[in-house]
Structure formats: structure tokens, C-alpha cells
């Protein structure tokens, strides 16, 4: 075969291969957000946990440059009405969240106004394989504690207002808001789920605790969720990272102000009013992150250092005041200058 013939064959093969590659790349790159979320299941069920992917229909309602208000009402509003009527409707705006008209109005605007952010954060969620992480977190808490959370209903949503991120009012009215920029999506999935799982298990054990409605209970509850997350990752994250992704500077701020933090907080430990005094103190002191999370973690860490590496499991059974008293933390604070 002549050299020109060989060259032509090589050129054609290269051209065809290049076209095939471009076609494959194009099909991947041009897969729209609508095509991606269409393959997302409406819900995921693991044991007594159900995840409702409400964001799926908040996006699909905008497919084909139109807006399907019936889809929003049927697949988003009526699917989990409690989060809209009793959570967002109470905390933010009743007409906006607790009525069909209000829900349709803001859902009609949200995709147009926040399209880039929605695409980015939804893609991040899909890439981090949320369902696998959920299964791993559940297996982890079963192994570590011998307990499993009950009656959990978590809705993944796109909300037009920030302020909740990952949380809720009761086990069956929890949300993960993909659009809350105060939270990193991967962190919410990988570290937020273990944290919340411990809340779901710990809170039912407070039923007979005489101080279940006090700031001390909230402090121990949040600190314990952070401590469980630290144990769950078995040394792969630091203590500071387990407490709301604190930096070393954040942590050191608390160490430098530790006596002041405790002395300002402790008079409110058994307060039973409607306010949230410890969060207010955190703002007043310009404390980094959330003051009561760090303080609760610190108390539990002292308890574990005193009673042994597996003693953190005692916290599920002890009244919160007993955790504080037995931890030795009060004595430590008294000795600080």
C-alpha cells in the first residue's frame, strides 16, 4: 500500500474516533438538569427512614420553558405538608408557605432567579451519592450504639429563604435545603447526617429527664451530636471539625474564653422560658460558630476522659444534669484563672 493510502486510513480512523469521542462528550455535557433529576427516585426508604426528593419536582415543574403549578401542589406541597404549614409557614411567612397560592408563586420564580445555584448544588448532591451515604451512616450508628432512628421523614428541598439548612421541628418534619449557602452540600450529607441521626436517637431518651426543656438539655444534645460525629469518623476528622466545621482559630477562641463562656452560660442552664438565651449569649460575645455546640462537646469530652473511651454511650441514659456534674467540667472551670 502506498504511503498516501496509509496516511489517509490513519486520518479517517482518527477523524472517526475523534467524532465518536466528541459525540460522547457532547451527550454527557449536554445532559440537562431536567434529564438528571428525572432519574432521581421520588423517595428513598431505609429502615424507618424515608427521604423525599421534593427538589426533583421543584425543578421538573419548569421543564420545556413552562411552569406546571399542579405538579408543585401535588408533588411538593401535598407530599409533605407539615414542613410547609408547620415549619416554614410558622417560622417565616404563612401565606407564602402554608397556602397553595403562595407555594405556586415562589416556586414559579425560584428556578429563574437561582438557576445557576440550583444546578451547581443539585449536581453536587447527585455526585456525592446521597443514598449510599445514608446507608453508611445508618449502618454506622447501628454498629456504634446498637440503636436506630425511628419514624424519620426528611425532605430535600429548594427553599427561597435561608435559616434552617439542615434541621426541623420533629422527626417527621425535617428538611435539607439545598439552596442554603450557609451550608456546604457535601458536608451536610457526609457529616450532617450522622449528627442528625444522633439527635433522632438521643431525644426520645429525654422523655423522663426533669430538665428536658432547658438550655442545658439543648447544650448536651447538640454537643453529643457533635461528639457522636467525631466518634463516627474514628479519627478522620478533628474535634474542631466535628463541631460545625470549626477552624483551629475558632477552637482556640473558645479555649481562651472558656471560663467566661461557662460562667455566662451556667446561670441559664435551667431556664424554662420561651427564649433561647445561650444563642443570644453567643452573639453577644461574638463567639465563632454556635456557642452551645462547643460547650456541650466540651462537657462530654471531659466525661469521656474521666470514665473511659466507651463511656460516651452513657449519655443516652443519664439525665443532663448528671452528665454535667459527673464530667468534672465544673471543677475544671473553677480552677481556671
Question: Helices, strands, pairings?
Answer:
Blueprint: H1 3-29, H2 33-38, E1 43-46, E2 49-52, H3 55-60, H4 69-77, H5 81-91, H6 94-97, H7 100-113, H8 115-127, H9 130-145, E3 152-157, E4 166-168, E5 174-177, H10 185-202, H11 215-232, H12 239-242, H13 248-256, H14 258-265, H15 277-284, H16 291-307, H17 320-327, H18 329-335
Parallel strand pairs: 2-3, 3-5
Antiparallel strand pairs: 1-2, 4-5
Helix pairs in contact: 4-7, 9-10, 10-11, 11-16, 16-17
Description:
The protein is of the alpha/beta class. It folds into two domains: about 35-205, no CATH class; about 210-335, no CATH class. Helix content is about 60%, strand content about 5%. The protein has 18 helices and five strands. The chain has a five-stranded mixed sheet. A hairpin with a 2-residue loop joins strand 1 (about 45) and strand 2. Helix 11 (about 215-230) packs across helix 16 (about 290-305). It starts with a helix and ends with a helix.
How would you briefly describe this protein structure?
The protein is α/β, with parallel strands linked by helices and 337 residues long. The protein is built from 18 helices and 5 strands.
Largest sheet: 5 strands, mixed
How many structural domains can be distinguished in the coordinates? 2
The ordered string of helix (H) and strand (E) elements is: HHEEHHHHHHHEEEHHHHHHHHH
Shape: elongated
- The side-by-side strand order for the widest beta sheet comes to 1-2-3-5-4
Q: Helical element count?
A: 18
Radius of gyration: 25 Å
Mean pLDDT: 90
Distance between the termini: 92 Å
The beta-strand count equals 5
Amino acid at each position: 500500500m502506498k504511503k498516501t493510502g496509509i496516511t489517509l486510513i490513519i486520518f479517517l480512523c482518527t477523524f472517526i474516533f475523534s467524532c465518536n469521542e466528541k459525540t460522547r462528550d457532547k451527550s454527557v455535557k449536554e445532559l440537562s438538569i431536567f434529564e438528571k433529576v428525572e432519574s432521581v427516585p421520588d423517595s428513598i426508604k431505609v429502615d424507618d427512614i424515608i427521604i423525599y426528593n421534593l427538589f426533583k419536582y421543584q425543578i421538573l415543574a419548569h421543564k420545556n420553558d413552562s411552569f406546571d403549578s399542579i405538579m408543585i401542589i401535588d408533588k411538593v406541597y401535598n407530599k409533605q405538608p407539615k414542613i410547609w404549614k408547620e415549619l416554614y409557614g410558622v417560622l417565616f411567612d404563612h401565606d407564602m408557605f402554608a397556602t397553595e397560592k403562595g407555594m405556586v408563586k415562589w416556586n414559579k420564580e425560584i428556578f429563574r432567579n437561582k438557576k445557576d445555584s440550583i444546578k451547581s448544588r443539585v449536581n453536587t448532591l447527585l455526585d456525592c451519592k446521597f443514598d449510599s451515604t445514608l446507608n453508611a451512616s445508618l449502618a454506622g450508628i447501628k454498629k456504634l450504639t446498637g440503636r436506630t432512628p425511628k419514624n424519620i421523614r426528611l425532605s430535600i428541598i429548594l427553599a427561597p429563604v435561608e435559616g434552617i439548612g439542615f434541621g426541623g421541628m420533629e422527626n417527621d418534619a425535617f428538611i435539607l435545603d439545598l439552596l442554603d449557602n450557609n451550608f456546604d452540600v457535601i458536608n451536610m450529607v457526609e457529616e450532617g447526617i450522622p449528627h442528625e441521626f444522633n439527635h433522632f436517637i438521643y431525644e426520645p431518651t429525654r422523655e423522663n429527664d426533669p430538665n428536658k426543656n432547658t438550655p442545658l438539655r439543648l447544650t448536651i444534645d447538640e454537643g453529643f451530636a457533635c461528639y457522636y460525629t467525631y466518634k463516627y469518623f474514628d479519627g478522620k476528622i478533628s474535634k474542631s471539625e466535628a463541631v460545625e466545621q470549626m477552624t483551629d482559630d475558632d477552637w482556640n477562641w473558645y479555649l481562651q474564653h472558656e471560663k467566661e463562656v461557662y460562667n455566662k452560660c451556667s446561670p441559664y442552664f435551667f431556664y424554662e422560658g420561651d427564649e433561647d438565651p445561650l444563642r443570644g449569649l453567643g452573639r453577644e460575645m461574638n463567639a465563632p460558630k454556635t456557642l452551645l455546640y462547643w460547650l456541650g462537646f466540651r462537657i462530654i469530652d471531659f466525661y469521656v476522659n474521666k470514665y473511659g473511651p466507651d463511656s460516651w454511650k452513657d449519655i443516652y441514659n443519664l439525665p443532663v444534669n448528671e452528665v454535667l456534674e459527673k464530667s468534672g467540667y465544673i471543677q475544671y472551670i473553677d480552677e481556671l484563672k
